[in-house]
Design brief:
Uracil-DNA Glycosylase, subunit E; globular; alpha/beta
């Protein structure tokens, strides 16, 4: 991690901008889930994670209450993370296929994982104000990852906010803006590609809305685009 990314991570972790999210993340960390009763929850905002030379940026919605809000690392310790890191491993972006805790040795190669909102929200639904309070963190990550060629948005919430941010930075989508769809691919300003994927939540993976083959196709495409 570069000094600039490390400084940003410290700033993210110390953030208390949104009273509702602060109260919720700390309540969850105090009450805990029975299966994790013996663990000490992170209970703070979760910074991004990955390779500072990343050509691929992965943007999720927010930390899961008993996933990243427990472990302190994005997409770590829950079923969504199991799906994501296994797929990234198959595509060559991760050295391990599993993510259980911050010190499990997982490393990303050419990829960086973040989220639109950095605190676990009640019912997994941040408000527009909470979404926008976190916006500067994602904007700064974009500045601090100069090798980016591809952004993969997991879910419509991530897709919409990422497009807003990129449009404000001179990389607008086509007009009219394409609706979110799994496998959607956009070329923005001739410099950056954006891919959309269903979020690997249990709601999508357990129902078959998102299959392993569908998910792998997104990362295979991302790898090709990242390689130029």
């Amino acid at each position: 991690m570069t000094p600039e990314l490390a400084a940003l991570a410290r700033e993210v972790t110390a953030c208390r901008r949104c009273p509702r999210l602060v109260a919720w993340r700390e309540r969850v960390a105090d009450e805990k889930r029975a299966a994790y009763r013996s663990e000490t929850y992170w209970g703070r905002p979760v910074p991004g994670f990955g390779d500072p030379a990343a050509r691929l940026l992965i943007v999720g919605l927010a930390p899961a209450a008993h996933g990243a809000n427990r472990t302190g690392r994005m997409f770590t310790g829950d079923r969504s993370g199991d799906w994501l890191y296994a797929a990234l491993h198959r595509a060559g972006f991760a050295n391990h296929a599993a993510s259980t805790h911050r010190d499990d040795g997982l490393a990303l190669h050419g990829a960086y994982v973040t989220a639109v909102v950095r605190c676990a929200p009640p019912a997994n639904k941040p408000t527009p104000a909470e979404r926008d309070a976190c916006r500067p963190f994602l904007e700064r990550e974009l500045d601090l990852l100069p090798e980016l060629r591809v952004v993969v948005c997991l879910g419509n919430f991530s897709y919409a906010q990422t497009l807003r941010i990129l449009a404000a930075r001179g990389l607008p989508p086509p007009r009219p803006r394409p609706r979110f769809a799994h496998g959607l691919e956009l070329e923005l300003g001739g410099r950056l590609h954006l891919l959309a994927s269903y979020h690997p939540s249990q709601q999508n993976t357990f129902t078959g809305r998102l299959t392993r083959e569908m998910f792998d196709a997104v990362w295979a495409r991302a790898a090709r685009l990242a390689d130029g």
